[in-house]
Amino acid sequence: MAANPPGQGFQNKNRAAILADLEKEKRRLIQSQSMNSPGASIPLARPAVNNLVRDHAEQQHIAAQQKAALQHAHAHSSGFFITQDSSFGNLILPVLPRLDPE
Q: Dihedral, CA atoms, 64, 68, 69, 73, nearest 10 degrees?
């Protein structure tokens, strides 16, 4: 048998934890649907609140990543960079100065 890579055990535990969380959420949703009146398709408000909290946490995480990338770029480069949303997933973009034509 081949030996597992060093991070494989952690990945398997993480994957199992994620699957367990998904199964709990699935059971909770099925239970909440059975408690609603028949034919009602309006979900409870709690998942929407959870999504807002998750979105806010993701935005904070991205902002922290942008700040770290910007600090790293300024420390290790002579160029100038700004944070801006990018279609390609770039956290920071280089700024090129405009030169007047001579």
A: 150
Kindly state the tokens that stand for 82.
């700004």
- Quote helix, strand, coil % in the chain, to nearest 5: 60, 10, 35
pLDDT tens, position by position, 8-21: 666 777 888 888 88
- Give the residue from 80, 61, 60, 59 showing the smallest Cα distance to 70: 80
Answer yes or no: pTM beyond 0.85. no
- Cα 21 versus chain centre, distance: 17
Phi, psi dihedral angles at 95 (to 5 degrees): -110, 125
